[in-house]
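Entry for the shared binder. Reason: the reviewer on the internal report wants the predicted structure included alongside the sequence.
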Amino acid sequence: MGELKVQELRAAEDVEAFWKSVRSVPRRTGGRTHKQMERYYVALYLMRFAENGLLAYPLRLKEEESQAGQLPDFMITWPSGESTGLEVTRAAETKVQAAITRLEKQCPDGAILMPNLRGYGGDELEGAFCALVRGIVEKKVQEKLPKYNVSQCDLLVHDETSMGAGDRRKTLQILEPWARELKQREPKLGKLSIVASLDVLYDVGGESRVFGYVNWTAPDEAESPAGETFSERVEYAGEVAAARAVQSLKKSGIPVYLTDSKERLVKEMPDGRRFEVRIDNDGREVLVRELSRA
C-alpha cells in the first residue's frame, strides 16, 4: 500500500478492509518501511475498537507528515468533529533488533526459529517488559508530547521485545498504577495502549482491558465482527507467532534452524555457515551437506 494520507471509515466493514489492506508487510530486508509498520498497528488497534463496540462512525484517519514535529503520527476525527492524535512507538531492545535484521539478511527464504533461553521466575518476565515500556513511554511523553499541536494524544506502543509481554493481565496490573499517575502528570496524554503480538492491552490505567485477537472460549466457525472465521484467525495468529519467534534471539552462540524454499531443514551456525540436515527416526541430527552462505 502506498501513501495512506486519509482513510474514511464509515462502518466496521471499512475497518476490516483497512486492516486487510495493510497487514501484509514485507520483511525488514524486503523494503519494509516505518510507515507500513505504523499502519499495520493502527489498523489492528482500530479493529479491536470496532469489534468491542468502541467506534462511532463515520470517522476519519489521517496520516500526518509534520516536518517540524508538531503533529503525532495520525489524527483521528470523530463524528462529533473533535480530533485526537495517535502516536505509534516501538518497545524493543536495540541490540536484539540489530541481530534480527542480520539474521533476516542471512536467511531470506525461510522462517528463523530461535528459542528464548533466558529463564524467568514468577512475574520476572512481565516485570522486565513493563520496566522497558515505562522507560520508552516516559521518554516519548517528555520529549514529544509537549511539541504536538493537539489537545489530546493517545499513545500506541507495539511490542517488539525479545521477552514478549507475558501474561497480558499481569502486565496490565503491573502498569496500571504507574499509568494512572502518568496521566495525572501529563493531561495531554489520552489512552495508553499496547499491542502484544495480535492482542491489544487497551487504555492502560483507564479502562484497562485485554482485547484478544483469537477468542479461544468460542472455537466455532461463526464469523467474527471482522468477517473472519475462528480457524482463519488461528491460522493468521500462528503465522505471526512464527515470524515473531526471531524476537526471542539471544546471544547464546547456538545454531538457528529454518526451512528454506526447497523445504530443506537448514542449520545456520553463529559464524554464518549453513548446513542441510535431517533428523533420523531415533531423533539424531544427521549432516547432509554444507550449503553456500546466504
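Summary line for the report: Residues 36 and 182 are 29 Å apart (CA to CA).
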